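Please check both lines for our workbook:

___
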Amino acid sequence: MKLLLYILLGTTLLFGCSDNGEHVKSGDSKAAASFNEKASKFLDNNADSALYYSEKAFEVATLAKDIENKANALLLESTALRQQGKLKSSFQQIRKAQKLLEDRSSCDRLKNDVLLQQGQLYVDFGQYDEALNQFLTVSINLEKCKNDELLAECLSHMGLLYYRIGDYKKASAVNAKVIRKLGVSKNSTTRGAYYTLNGYLAAQNGNYLAALASLNKAKDVYKADNDKVRYCNSYLNIAFAHRKNGNFEKAKQAVETSIELSKNINYVQLYVDGLNKLGEIYTKIGAFDKADSILNLGLRKAEKIKDQALLAEYYLHLGALNSAKPDYKKAYYYQKKFQETKDRIFNDQRAFRISDLEVQYETKKIKAKNEELAQESERRKLYSIVLGIFGLMAIGLIVLIVNRNRIRIKFIRQQKELDAERLKKQELVTRQLEIEKELKQKENEELQKENQRKEHELSVVAMHIYQKNESLSQLMEELQSGTTENTNRLKSIIRQNLTLDDDWEKFKIHFDQVHKGFFERISNGFPKLTNQDLRHCSYIRMNLSTKEISRLLNINPTSVQRSRVRLKQKLNLDKSTDLYKYIQQY
């Protein structure tokens, strides 16, 4: 009788609390929705404010037991953290949102938005298999639900992923499907992604005009929709097409525009990525000091936000920069840092996957434990009412043990399969590194052969000038004793040939191919140098003797010595400085 009274009392309290909770939810849901709306507006221009309002929305929605606004707050918080480069924290929040919505219909819009965000984070982590599986799952759900607009967005992400992994044929096929599903929709995100992928594919095929047209369309779509984040990123995409086309000046202008926009909207990750690409462009055009300054600034920013993928790119580009200078000691250092960072990314991803599996396992274990406790409680109630069902409880317990053992065996088997898959991926990464090393070695060999060929051509040109001047000088000496009008005319012709600039121009072209930027650097550093001074410097750079230089300059060796003294004065060198060593290192 007492037990019955307790049950009635508990039921009354339960319903009373439920009514009160519903009242709180109805009262606070509007506030949670309002905070979410503010967070959504700030995503385009201030990730910090978006993060603040999404956290407030989560707190209010939690008190109100409002799952819809709670999950939406987690999605917005994940997006803001992703913009700040905090990928692990972003993934943790999106997993929480996924768990809140796991019992919802596969057609639920919010649920599919969360799954799409999770897929994009898998792409950021480099887990392309998981990302592709995620996008495929969402696309199947949306096709079944006939949600063509969201399906088009999902397919656009899938197409960009196929492009990233180098499957251009599938990327093109998926992009064609996007435009069929998109129809007359005004979804700027999807339309922009469609034009972006079109631009990438056109650039890959060498059609740079079509690429730039598509990428500019994407930019215009984002601008019209006031999507500041993607509008900023569109300039990096345009810079990509210009770089592929070899137009580094326009690529530089596009990247600088993106950097300025990313600073305005406080999008740290885009800003750091922009600095990285700008430094790479300056390296390509030979502005090594500018490239060094920008890449080191970006490196410090990348270290601050702890974005391992961007750090790897910075180390790669700094290695290329120092190799071009050349400063092989630094080049080797950054190449080593690049390799270490790639290894760390691989290990972090592996640890992240293991952690993710552990979370799933712990969740299932707690759920199983709760179910077990509920069953145990039910068995005790049944035991107190009917002693005769004890045997049935024993059977149920045996079934439970068997099921647990079966689950345990299944888990061990899955764990072994995961280990085998990880080992296989590690072997693929090792093989890829070996191939990259072989390609780099072949590239260095080809570069060495090309330099040898150019040095040979330069020597041939210099020798031709030398021999021509030698022959003309000998002829001049033989004619010194002549006094006839014909002799004077021949002397005049010889002098004209000794001072012609045609051979010098040919020499400059071959010299600049071997010693890139030498004339530009020394002319910029010392504007007062004459053409004769520049010739003298180039012959010293080739390590020619005084006799050879005197013949090429058509002056006697004593004049060469005097010319060196004047040259040292123009180069602001003191008497103790070796002119040859200085110019050899310039």
Notes: The radius of gyration is 36 Å. Residues 1-27, 349-363 have pLDDT under 50 and may be disordered. Residues 7 and 465 are 112 Å apart (CA to CA). The chain has 24 helices and no strands.
